[in-house]
Amino acid sequence: MIRRALILAALLGFALSSAGCVAVKPWDKDLLARPDMAWDDDPRLATIKGHIRFSKEGSLSAGGGASGGCGCN
Amino acid sequence: MKIVRVNNRKARRRAGRGRRRTILASLSSAALALLGTTTDSRADGPVEKIEAAYAFSFYSEDSIKESNTSLGDTSRYEIETQQVTVAGPLTDRSDVAFDFIYESMSGATPWFVEPDPSGGQPVQAMSGATVTEKRYDGALRGNYYFDNARAGAHFGVSGENDYLAIYSGVNGEYHLNEKNTTLSGGLSFSIDEIKPTEGGTDGRIKSDEKQSVSLNGGFSQILDRSTTLQTSISYKHSTGFLSDPYKKACIAPNATCTDLLVDNRPDTRNQVAWLTQVRKHFEFIDASLHANYRFHYDDWKLTSHTFEVEWFQNFFDDLVQVVPTLRYYSQSQAYFYEPFYLSERSDGLASSDYRLSPYGSFSFGAKVQMRMEDWLGSSDWRLAINYERHLADADFALSKAKVKNPGLVNFHFVYVTADIKF
């Protein structure tokens, strides 16, 4: 388990270090500005899905934030 | 609520006519708007229009199989949820939003697990009576925008007839490296009080409390003109009553349940989640890929892996989007979990909750949405419908589970929404 996490961390570190020298200029950010490139395309859908998963799974919900609800049933 | 400060279809048409410079400011602003934290993906400027959104969703769990049940009602939980968001600018550097959620829930829920007298396999005893419950949740959010940073705060209250949670937090982000890199962080807490129905009877607590504090930090990096990556770590510390007052655990030394203990979990929990997300746009087919991976570990020894992929396929010059989604989740069990116990644990802990059992799940579905800009008096509309099917099984887990918990849940989920920006 820990080994998998370390491999992933190494891959991530490599990706970021190779990206460090890249600087996309503002006039080249049109694709990044598209609605379908948002981190969170639909916040209400993310909220309700997050609440379902908080209630039905054993893990910390995606955002990691503290929020309301028992989730007992 | 989505904040995009540029009309993309119009922007691309203008760019095509060689008027690129005139939209530079709004493009860069909108691009960086999308580099928020995992909890808040707002723009680096305040909301410019009044925005209102409504969503209705229906969640329905499959009935539990007769062969997996020893007692109680086989029909399970259904939840209808209504969500309303209203947002708007406060000053030229700040905005505010209010989110309201109303949920109506009903159905039977898992109570305890016991061995089947015929073969010793675990079977689920369900609650005898149908539970009906309502939940109200209201939260206020605000943001202040600096030239290269954003500071935000939220405060909310969630209430059920047996549960009250008050939560609040602050978060922020800072842009650097020509706004190709964004650092983000947040701190939030929740104070919860539980007063279970029929508290004080049959070993059930009358009332109790729990508190939790969450910290998260991360950064996002633009990798190239069409690719961006975000990674963040979240930590949550919970203390107080972390058990489920409506569940029990069975002591079954000889394949027969001889005693029922109240669900009893440790009174502290430390959870860590590491989330990494990638967004990639494919210009030649006008589509975007969203890929997320989350690793979770906590001091109840519960480890999980979540993989999620969404494909945003655009049609008719971005008027319509079809978004198929696939999610895989796998968790190991909490160290004190057993479907039933041969004898009482020396530390007194006991839980047969399927949420703490080893299992995996697949969720798959699709969303179809339409975006209409400058429609009905120059307002912008988004209409969407989403369907998801969720299937859970011990055999889907990455590591083979010894025994399947009979209470694992399969469900259907439908969501419809309308957003309007005036």
Descriptive report:
The complex is a heterodimer of chains A (73) and B (422). Chain A is mainly α and 73 residues long. Chain A contains 2 helices and no strands. Chain A has helices at 2-19, 43-56. The model of chain A has no long low-confidence stretch (mean pLDDT 74). Chain B is mainly beta and 422 residues long. Chain B has a domain at 114-125 and 144-421: Porin (Beta Barrel), CATH 2.40.160. Chain B has 2 helices and 21 strands. Chain B has helices spanning 8-16, 24-33, and strands at 51-61, 69-71, 78-91, 94-107, 110-115, 122-126, 131-145, 149-160, 163-176, 181-194, 208-224, 227-240, 248-251, 259-262, 268-282, 287-298, 303-315, 320-331, 359-375, 379-393, 411-421. Chain B has a 16-stranded antiparallel barrel with strand order 1-3-4-7-8-9-10-11-12-15-16-17-18-19-20-21. Chain B has a 3-stranded mixed beta sheet with strand order 2-6-5, with no helix packed on it. Chain B starts with 7 loop residues before the first helix and ends with a strand. The interface between A and B is large, with 52 and 130 residues.
Keywords:
heterodimer, A: 73 residues, mainly alpha, 2 helices, 44% helix, B: 422 residues, mainly beta, Porin, three-stranded mixed sheet, globular, disordered N terminus
Helices, strands, pairings?
The complex is a heterodimer of chains A (73) and B (422).
Chain A: H1 2-19, H2 43-56
Chain B: H1 8-16, H2 24-33, E1 51-61, E2 69-71, E3 78-91, E4 94-107, E5 110-115, E6 122-126, E7 131-145, E8 149-160, E9 163-176, E10 181-194, E11 208-224, E12 227-240, E13 248-251, E14 259-262, E15 268-282, E16 287-298, E17 303-315, E18 320-331, E19 359-375, E20 379-393, E21 411-421
Parallel strand pairs in B: 2-6
Antiparallel strand pairs in B: 1-3, 1-21, 3-4, 4-7, 5-6, 7-8, 8-9, 9-10, 10-11, 11-12, 12-15, 13-14, 15-16, 16-17, 17-18, 18-19, 19-20, 20-21
